[in-house]
Amino acid sequence: MARARSAERRAEIVRAALEVIAERGYRGASLSAVAERVGLSQQGLLHHFPTKEALLVAVLEERDQWDTGGGTRSDDVWRIELLASLVEYNAMRPGIVQTFSALLGESVTEGHPAREFFTRRYTQVRASMAAILRAEHGERLPGGLTPERAAPLLVAVLDGLQYQWLLDPDSVDMPAAFEDFLALLRPDGPEAPQPPPP
Question: Whole-prediction pTM value?
Answer without folding.
Answer: 0.77
